[in-house]
């Protein structure tokens, strides 16, 4: 794809931002001119991705030292006295025995201090490389990396309603993530492409992440051999010698809570850890079902499970990058449904963040989680509650940051762009308060004085462009203008934005040889075995 | 109204809670029995109001000591060098001069330290009494009192759309507040009853707050004589000797930002301060218009204005209760519209909360603020962003906690019950994490073990009823059930709840003599002058 093709094709007014100013400058620098060039400039797709968030604000610490120490001691007791089960995985049991654990059948009892000692070899933060080096992300410390929804078998938009997801939907969500300024990471299973065989869809998903975006992405975890495919395709894309020394994937390993580590997920973990690729070790908990109904009890179990899983990753390959994960929701005791945006979930997020930081580990939690079936007020309350909690709770890697609907059953097109817009708020909050002379604005207060107006003052003129976060989808029009436009609700406005972004999309350039090699790998692997469904 | 009438009339299943268990007990205690009594019990309206929030969690502190000291020093400079204007208020100017201020025309320059010295006589916290002593609220310290929307000239619901508010709407919102468990305070101008003359509507509003609910309320501030009416009606309701020694109103005094204190608002403040009634001294700021576009500059102005206003209240009557207010939003630089739920607003809220606490003053900010015209996803994102920030930011008195739409132009029926439901989340968050033996749940973790299930375990059975916050309006049904019910969005579900609450409403008992005296006062005052409009 030529540079010119990349820079043409769409109306800049609705695009995310002005990142293509540089592109336009380059074009002028090369002396291109005349009507066609000017038209091309005017219609250039301007794609900008904000750098991952570096917090300049404090984390919210809900527990004091005494509370944290209590939960840590309880987690150590769980690991020692109750133990964890590594199911159908004799190699894991041997590793644990050699490391000093008390192994009885599949049950592994970890003597006090063993798990935390093993966790200590995991890096405090790591860099995941992207195809575009400007989009590399640092995970850990004060950073926050935002990745879209993961896992739903259904999609929803206004026109099509709720329906099974296809590979076309998957590619659309890759494109939406690429076009979204505040989304740093392309994610993984943005939706399940149910029209592709279960044993082959990971290949199509990886190919989409590798070719349709230049943001970092996640690997497959549904079987060890699919993890191996993910590593192999990264070797093609990034160069075989780089995979291992450098990290190109962060993949999601769920724990089978309570306290079970199954062979499939551990098999994928083993592949990634050996290849030096990052994993998120995440208890997946619906409180009241997979953990106690109490916050402190759930935190104890989360800590025990995460420590055991992370310790295992370090047994496989000391120093391999790993994230302390916590996906925790509550259960509605009337219906049995999982609930989102609840106070219990926020408290667990905050507490788990503190526990992860005390282990010097990157932390994953949060997201625009909701139980609502529609991108309506319920969805937004629930999502905003979680997004706010996650920013203040020190989350370093946020999966499901946009697009999640109906308890994770549905990837929502409109929900994606509504959430993605809110992610801009997290960026701005994380900047903290500017206390420079310009931030203090004493000259402005003096200039305007009692009863004056700031709109025209010098300080406002100099700062207004960047002073406030700006939405790309919410409606601020006066009532009358809005009513004349048909009184659109947010869902309707979001639908228009989805269409605009997909219409404007153009893929980032990729070496044709690499693209061919990736396609050839996918074709060969697909041809090597029959389709499997379910 | 008889006790029996109070306890009959509605289906308990949809009501907020089970507060009327006591009523039922009393009835049984008096020996009432038989079929009619049992039917009455079964159909009793069960109204419960949660006690105001007492935070057991830390506040979020975005600024460090250095930043706070910088803003304090800047605010002192603003007060000394720029000064504030007390417009058309010669008595105020004399008071200021006597207190040591440098008064030039209407401009009052406060020497360094004067404002904070005067603020020191204001109480750190105070109790506002309600007609029902169980609904007294403490304002300040670790408390959070929630009051509904204030001020809109319009209302909106699904059936009627957006329309001018009437006194019937006003009474409906009083009733909704009374029926809402998580709303502690009946508020003030829940909407403007535009069908009543401007110079008389405060009488009808007060009468509604005094007779249709037993929660605390706010007084009129639109003219000093209306404030005097408010005090007089409190004397009738609570007893003349109690008003003064005790506080029965908390009323909203807006500052005319930047740095102007107009005679109308100050006149109302003077009435309330002399009568020992509480006021909220609140800069009302659209950032970029009434304050600098920067957060630190706005905080400086907010602090200067609030200190000057609070100091003035203490000049009028040292020790009179007063709240440090901050109503701050941003402006959309494209349309000029105010915006809500923005990161700038949250940062200002957090910073202002810290500044208020350093002055040992109660703090007012936040609310379910939004710019959206509908109770849709936009409204909910914006509202949730502000509610979350306000809880963590240490707000003590939250006006607009429910019902606000369209930048404060509209009181929304459906929005009211959606927000009021979310307020339950704030209660639960504020409880913090239970670290008791029961909270730790070690026995449960041991009982269930690896691969087990918590739903049936003893700890879950003992705790599930109170373990999780429960919504009264959000939808957790499975997709199929929800789709069969017509796929209702949150607005539709909220509309049904509005109807249920208004249908179930019955007024709390009031001494008939007091009710008559209040009505007579209103009638006499209305007859004493002609209607004024506009």
UniProtKB/TrEMBL annotation, chains A, B:
The keyword Methyltransferase applies. Residues 13-26 have a biased composition (Low complexity). Transmembrane segments: none annotated. Belongs to the trimethylamine methyltransferase family. Gene3D superfamilies: Trimethylamine methyltransferase-like. This is Methyltransferase. One of its GO terms (molecular function) is methyltransferase activity. InterPro entries: MttB-like_sf (IPR038601), MTTB_MeTrfase (IPR010426). Its EC number is 2.1.1.-. Coiled coil: none annotated. GO terms for biological process: methanogenesis; methylation. It is an enzyme of class 2 (transferase). Residues 1-41 are annotated as: Disordered. Pfam families: MTTB (PF06253). Keywords: Methyltransferase, Transferase.
